[in-house]
Amino acid sequence: MLTLTRTRKSLITLTLFLSLSVAACNGCATAPAEVYVSPSGDQVNEARARAVKIATTITATMTITTQALEVADDLERSMLLKPDVLREMAKQSKLLAKVASETLDVLEGVAGGATVDLKNTLQVVLREFEGLIKLFEGTANDTLKQLAQAARAVLTMVTIGGVE
Amino acid sequence: MNLSLILKLVTNAAAIAEAGKRGLDAIRSFAVKSGASETDVAKAIADGRAAAAKLEGVADGILGRLDAEGK
Question: How far apart are the C-alpha atoms of A88 and A53, rounded to whole Å?
Answer without folding.
Answer: 29
